[in-house]
Amino acid sequence: MSPTSSPAPAPRLTYSTVLGSPYVARLLGGTLTGRLPNGMAPVAILLWATTSGSSIAFGGVLSALYGLSSSVMQPVKGRLMDRYGQTAVHLPAAVLNSALLVALPLAGPYGGPGLATAIVVAGGVTTPSLEAGLRTLWPSVLPDTRLRHAALALDTGAQGLLYIVGPLLVAALASAYNPTVALTVTAVLGLAGTTVVVLSPPSRRWRPTPSTGTLHGAAGRLNSLGLVLLFVALTGIGFAIGAMNVWSIAMAERHGQDMLSGIIPAAFSTGSFLGGLVYGRRTWPRPAPDQLVIASIAFLAGWLLLAALPAPFAAIAAVVVPGAFLTVVVACAYVTTDALTPAGRTSEAYAWLILSIGAGQSSGTALAGRLAEEPLTSAALPAVGAAFALAVLLAARRRFRPAERRPRGRHRRSLRGRPMTS
């Protein structure tokens, strides 16, 4: 090639190329299968409780405790992965989680509400942290940043499908058999998916990069103000999702169409999946923090449509818009988190990100439940959460770029989505 000739354009990026890369399909499929119980277990627990003679209120408490204990323990499991590796954490957690789910219908009736509550909380605590684990594996599995960008968008967008397929599968199993069978299948899927991941060479070989920098202290603490503000902003994203779920139920009751309570979240999740497919097909010119802010603006704009109190069909179409940008927000948040995290603490940082969204979602659900009787207020709550997230992101925007050169390990990558040079 002559000195004046331009470099050849990069080959067209396709998802078949991404999934055809070594271990990608196995890791993604195993993680999604292993995480399917996240969408199944709360519903299965609720159905088991009600068919066992408990009230819906108690079943709801058990379901909420499972999700809450799982979210709260994410950073702990992330810290353990960063110290001992993935296999040593994922596999024991999956075995215990599956055993507890199977034990619930066997032990619950004999120990009363107290034992059932203890089993459910322990089951949530032992949920494998597969999502954070997968994100830490992508740099070693996909050194090409374009492929890694597409894989991150694909697995982020596919998450929403877990909360469509999971509850539907539980409902089908409970209807055809009983909730005990649904809990057993949930346990088997969780253990099977986790086993596929932990027995893969990338997961078995993965070790965190030792923390040698001083930017966050000698111990590599996660005390970056940029990280803290990013996680605070993500609680607003979660708040919007939680409020939307309750708003969809209120819409169903208001219009006398029960299916709306499932169709609206399904449309939102479908938008998230499609948005991830579109976003991952190309490398975007702006750095991740800028993409994060732009996507948050679009995420907020989508929720503003609900303030017009749309009819059911229009509401279903409207939630696709913020759903499409949710994947972009979350994917960019992961990249930004990686750039701000000291080496050797990546899994824990990702787990805090997951916890932030989950905590916001719980808050949005709780507040929206109290305000469900107010149509306009209920419809406006998702936008309130999105606006809070955007305000924090705008205020903290300059802190999302590392202020000084940091040690690079297998987790370090460019915010612009292309390889960094030494």
Structure description:
With 422 residues, the protein is mainly α. It has two domains: 15-144 and 161-208, MFS general substrate transporter like domains (Growth Hormone, Chain: A, Up-down Bundle), CATH 1.20.1250; 222-400, Up-down Bundle (Growth Hormone, Chain: A). The protein is built from 15 helices and no strands. It has helices at 15-20, 24-51, 56-72, 74-84, 87-125, 130-141, 145-176, 179-198, 201-205, 225-255, 260-279, 288-304, 312-340, 346-370, 375-395. It starts with 14 loop residues before the first helix and ends in a 27-residue tail after the last helix.
Give a short summary of the structure.
This protein is an all-alpha fold. 74% of the residues lie in helices and 0% in strands.
Uncertain runs with pLDDT below 50, 5 residues or more? 212-219, 404-422
CATH fold field value of the largest domain = Growth Hormone, Chain: A
Q: What is the average per-residue confidence, as pLDDT, rounded to a whole number?
A: 83
Largest sheet: none
The number of domains is: 2
* Total count of helical runs of at least 4 residues: 15
Structural class: mainly alpha
In one word, what is the shape?
A: globular
List keywords for this structure.
74% helix; 2 domains; 422 residues; Growth Hormone, Chain: A; disordered C terminus
